[in-house]
UniProtKB/TrEMBL annotation:
The species this protein was found in: Cohnella yongneupensis
PANTHER family: FATTY ACID/PHOSPHOLIPID SYNTHESIS PROTEIN PLSX (PTHR30100), PHOSPHATE ACYLTRANSFERASE (PTHR30100:SF1)
Stated name of the protein: Phosphate acyltransferase
Oligomeric and partner information: Homodimer. Probably interacts with PlsY.
Domain of life: Bacteria
Chemical reaction(s) catalysed: a fatty acyl-[ACP] + phosphate = an acyl phosphate + holo-[ACP]
GO MF, any single term: phosphate:acyl-[acyl carrier protein] acyltransferase activity
EC number: 2.3.1.274
Functional pathway: Lipid metabolism; phospholipid metabolism
Keyword Lipid metabolism: yes
UniProt lineage: Bacteria, Bacillati, Bacillota, Bacilli, Bacillales
Length: 329
């Protein structure tokens, strides 16, 4: 399998991308990792002993985080993100990964690869950690700020297939993000979506409140991109603030430092269980090719996780399964 990596996109690019590619190449020799970017920058970072399954695809332009997405994709046709997307379209790569501009990656998916038949709005589907270590797939988390009930139905169907194919969950449960668990709760969108999801060929378990997502009340949580992105950022901010507060309190006195030393292994396990690096790699479901979004602040560990998840999706035929599901719709 061949994975194109946008080596210039992300807060820690290109070092994180190169380091993760080298680590992944050693662990999965059957995978061809293609670093897309400026050769004059990437070549020195690779060092003298480059694995045979790591190559460079030249791309002299970079889409920045503050670039207007559609304009950047059209004007920077030789950017690392666009070239990686073109490789997928042309069949020279089975998937692409980028930690760069989310809007631009959405534009690459839509303008270069196009939507799958039967899909109106592709959705970004990251994994949330859960207290039981299983995780919850959430979509849409920001690809589309506005949605119709039919879009949420499509997210539910795509999320179900993803959990079945990539994570091996038989009959995954699907919940609808809402302000309460009662069927009558919510706005016009969630009320209409509830009726569609209830009739769909999925294991729908009803409305789920945001506070219950980490408790794994469902395998797939469905929402519009506006609400989903707010929930995602709120969880990230809360986790970061809690760990910062704990660190401050545990270092505040000699006694607390002694306690911190004793409890350090426990705190590390908690941190690891809630670490987004272990869940990095959100597929853009609904486009005609496998496009995976890494967190903007992805380090080498997080990028390698994204590579691992991408390999699994390729190996289990995710795009073929989605195509078959929606071909007649």
């Amino acid at each position: 399998m061949r994975i194109a990596i946008d080596a210039m996109g992300g807060d820690h690019a290109p070092h994180a991308q190169v380091e993760s590619a080298l680590a992944a190449a050693a662990e999965w020799p059957d995978t061809q990792l293609i670093l897309v970017g400026k050769p004059e920058i990437l070549t020195p970072l690779l060092g003298s002993k480059v694995p045979s399954n790591v190559t460079i695809e030249p791309a002299e332009e970079v889409i920045e985080n503050d670039d207007e997405p559609v304009r950047a994709v059209r004007r920077k046709s030789n950017s690392s993100m666009v070239v990686a997307g073109r490789m997928v379209k042309e069949g020279r790569a089975d998937a692409m990964i980028s930690a760069g501009n989310t809007g631009a990656l959405m534009a690459v998916g839509l303008l270069l690869l196009g939507r799958l038949n039967g899909i109106d709005r592709p959705g970004l589907a990251p994994m949330f950690p859960s207290l039981d270590n299983v995780g919850v797939l959430a979509l849409d988390m920001g690809a589309n700020m506005d949605a119709k009930p039919e879009h949420l139905l499509q997210y539910a169907l795509m999320g179900t297939i993803y959990r079945e194919k990539v994570h091996g969950i038989r009959k995954p449960s699907v919940g609808l993000l809402n302000v309460g668990t009662e069927q009558a709760k919510g706005n016009e969108l969630t009320k209409a979506a509830y009726d569609l999801l209830e009739q769909a060929p999925i294991h729908f378990v009803g409305n789920i409140e945001a506070r219950d997502v980490l408790r794994h009340k469902c395998d797939v949580i469905v929402c519009d991109g506006f609400s989903g992105n707010i929930m995602l950022k709120a969880f990230e901010g809360a986790a970061s603030s809690i760990f910062s507060l704990l660190r401050e309190e545990l270092m505040s006195s000699f006694k607390s430092k002694i306690a911190a030393a004793i409890l350090k292994p426990s705190f590390r396990r908690v941190r690891d269980r809630m670490d987004y690096n272990e869940y990095n790699g959100a597929p853009l479901l609904g486009v005609n090719g496998l496009v995976v979004k890494g967190h903007g602040s992805s380090d080498a560990k997080a990028m390698k996780t994204a590579i691992r998840h991408t390999r699994t999706a390729i190996g289990n035929g995710l795009i073929a399964a989605l195509t078959e599901e929606f071909s007649g719709k």
